[in-house]
Amino acid sequence: MLLALLPALLIMAAAFLLPMAGLAVESFRLFVPGRVGAAADAPFTLANYGDLLNRPFVGLFGETLRISILATLAGMLIAYPLAWHIVRRWSRRVRTLAIGLMVMLLLLSMLVRTYAIELTFGSVSIFRPTLKLLGISPNSGWYIECLVGAGLLHYIVPVATLTLLGTVQNVDPRLVEAAQSLGAPAWRAHLTVTLPLSRAGLVGAFLIGLTFSISAFVIPMVLGKGRVLFLSNSIFNRFSELADYPSGAAISIVMLVVSLLLVVAVSRLAAPRRRPA
Amino acid sequence: MSARLGDEISRVVVWAVMLLALLFLLVPLLVTTLMAFDARSYLGALPPPALSFRWFVNCFRQDALVTGLRISLALGVLAAAISSVAGAGAAIALDGAKFPGRGLLLALFVSPLVVPAVVTGFALLLALSQAGILNGFVRLLFGHVIITLPYTVRATLASLAGRDKRLVEAALVLGATEAQAFRSITLPLIRTGIVTGAIFAFAVSLDDVAVSTFLTDPTTYTLPVALVSAMRASFDLTIAAAAVLLMLVTALLIFVLDRAVGFDRLIGQGMFRT
Amino acid sequence: MAIRVELQGVTKRFGSMTAVDGVSFSIADGETVALLGPSGCGKTTILRLIAGFETPDGGTLRIAGEDMTRKRPYERNVGLLFQHYALFPHMTVAENVAYGLRYRGYPRADIPARVNEMLALVKLPTLGGRHPGQLSGGQQQRVALARALATRPGVVLLDEPLSALDAKLRQELRAEVKEVLAAVGSTAIVVTHDQEEAMSLGERVFIMSHGRIVQQGTPDDIYARPASRFVAEFMGRSNWFAGTLIAPTRFRTADDMVLEIAPHATDGAGHTLCLRPESIDVLPDGGDAGQNRLPARVLEVVLLGAARQITVELDGGQRLLALQANREHAPPARGARVVVGFAPSACILIPDDVV
Fold it and tell me: How does DSSP classify residue B141?
């Protein structure tokens, strides 16, 4: 039976583990500008990592983090009520429709969705007249940031909604009814009962959204138009424009570590969840 | 009285947020679909005064897009096939016995989902170059197989977990050997899981940009990569037409998925959890 | 009578836990035996050992004289009715029943006839084309039985056959299962935690606890002459008197009452007296004199339809539970003074050193 494991193991080793190890090694090599990548016998150095501690990169990291956190938070604000309505409010037919919509959005190509946003809300878009009316320039920094955030939301909302369906289901609706019978208006009942009880699920969904956002490549590339750069884009630039592989590798390793930490955080939070009796 | 008001207000606010969100999710797609049929040769305001198929025709005239499509489809089918076989095998092996390190192996197989795609692509490029593998298609295949493997493993595991373990025992005691029991009982029952995994793998492969960007060469590139270059070059509506075609492909995939598996089971199988 | 199943010193350990501890027994051809005990007593492990899903760590297992200790399940001819049926959901009822026939090399052409024969036997002749998901619990159970018996196995194992059904259905199917087993004539082992199930299906009952068989015999035997407190409490309700045997026919209780018992050897060991509720008569105060008449006060009367349960308190403070048929004469009132009486032969003595 363990023989069946072999193909997958080989694939993982050859296409994943070895390359990652190679990446780590490359990140420690010295880069001489003008070459493509580091020389095969280049000395080892921490310079690539040291470089990352200077302002431009820290600013980049900060920008990635900031936009990601804001987008994910916005996504949660939308997804949670949506999930709650799907589970507790809507009829079976509407529920199937809503879930079907979320699944469809997830399966739909990310590129298509990103392009659609650019076409609808971007600078060369049909929205332009409306924007001019509102006095907003579609090329301004903050608008582009919003656009990138919107792109992220297109993934975060469906994923978070589907993830939170389980969380909402685990909160006994009778507790909210109890709160209301004790005098709390609906909004306060939800705030003080449903929300705290969903905390583990909410944090989990948040981290899923955050992990995705931080690693986003296509979305900032298409919608950011060079004004907004995420970590992934800078790796690509190091690779394609500067041929500075070691530096790209160093950023990659940093991204890897951050993503892994986030995932560990998610699994830690998911683990002590109570199983339904 | 004010409690009531608070309730009403919060209800309206929540409804407004949800409505806006749903509109926000759907409007760009609707706009794109509409614009793809626009007869004008420039990007004008909605609604388009006349409809035409010119952009769709243009799609198939652009060599880059056609080549990209051809390679993407081949890649998708091949990657999905390889992933499904390897992934199903791994899932079956992992589900079978509880050996130490099982959890670790499972985490390993799912890890490409966690690693940023750019990192995967970059790492693969370095490794494949060093190994002397220069064929564009082969490199892309490596990349696509590795990013689709987690889906096939997870999907197969989910359907394995959902089945009754006693069924194999029943088969054994009725006279079937382990191999016969596997073929007649386990395999048919996990077939839906494997198919689901394969479909997801195909969809993921078709959509990938980050990994593919690193692994393409001037003659071998995928459709998404071609589309991205097209987007940077000129923002004309050919891309909108291509986008609509891709949406149709997605709709087709969903239809196949529903036929093969059924939607409610899909959600229940936890495909959308990490 | 030929021996169909024989276990000799069979032991099975899981880690540090011994699930089956040196168990030996033999079952005759055509006999139906019940393995009865609380969960964790090892009865399910024995079932799995006989079926071949586990291999014993020690001892031997013989079926029809052949040593089957290390054989795989498909090398034995054992039928198994799973607790939750384990019907193959992706196959029709007919395909389920035919499965064993296919894999045991039954001639292809004869399979449909045999399937129909089995379905007729369990009274489901028309359901061959359905899928298990479309059947009720009782129907599924019958299909599972048909499937297990189709290949004419030497031994049929039934794992808690009636526990998944509701009470009413259980009664019906109990009779049917007995009929089917009798019609087929195979040797059967029923594994259950339910005393009623064991007593109604088994010709002999083996009571298990902590991996050992603590008593075996006919249901009547075990009920009337339990060898230990555990068995007495497991098989039906009991009332207990602590005390000493002061003469072959006399028992003095801790409350200093002297009871008349059937002659019992005085071996010096301490004893406890067990009394079944149905052997206690609740008589009006001042009734006839006789053996073992104890004055008491009625604490509670519970009417259970066909029977009534009366809890009384003796003058010394001890409580007794009596069970009588709910017939013509009215039950005593709460608080009424009564006299409880029981025959000497109804007293069961259990030595204190037996657990």
Answer: H
Smallest CA–CA separation between B141 and chain A, in Å? 10
Residue type, A19: P
Q: How many domains does chain A have?
A: 1
Q: CATH no. for residue A140? A: 1.10.3720.10
Following DSSP, what letter does each residue of A198-234 receive, concatenated?
THHHHHHHHHHHHHHHHT--HHHHHHHTTTS--HHHH
Cis peptide before C153 (omega within 30 of 0): no
Q: What is the pTM of this model?
A: 0.75
DSSP state of C33: E
Q: What is the mean pLDDT of residues A190-206?
A: 85
Chain B residues touching A100 at Cβ < 8 A: 263
- All residues of chain A having their beta carbon less than 8 Å from the beta carbon of residue B10 are 186-187
The one-letter amino acid code at C267 reads D
Residue A127 lies in a domain: yes
Q: Considering CB atoms only, which of A15, A121, A221 is closest to B146?
A: A15
Quick one: pLDDT band at residue B170, thresholds 50, 70, 90? Answer: very high
pLDDT at position C317: 83
Among the ranges given (A28-37, C102-111, C122-131), the one the predictor scored with the smallest mean pLDDT: A28-37
Cβ count near C153 (within 10 Å) = 24
Q: Give the Cα separation of C253 and A207 in Å (integer).
A: 71
Q: Is residue A35 part of a domain?
A: no
Q: Is residue A154 part of a domain?
A: yes
Length of chain C, in residues? 355
Residue B272 has pLDDT above 90, yes or no: no
Supply the range of the domain harboring residue A217. 54-270
pLDDT confidence of residue C287: 65
Tens digit of each residue's pLDDT (9 = 90 or more) over A241-252: 877 888 888 888
Domains of chain B: 56-268 (1.10.3720.10)
Q: CB–CB of A187 and B6 under 8 A?
A: yes
Find chain A residues with C-beta within 8 A of B145's C-beta.
11, 15
Q: Which of residues 125-184 of C touch B (CB under 8 A)?
A: 147, 151
Where do the domains of chain C lie, and which CATH numbers do they carry?
3-232 (3.40.50.300), 237-351 (2.40.50.100)
Q: Does residue A263 lie in a domain region?
A: yes
Q: Measure the CA–CA gap between B216 and B266, rounded to whole angstroms.
A: 33
Phi–psi pair at B164, nearest 5 degrees: -80, 120
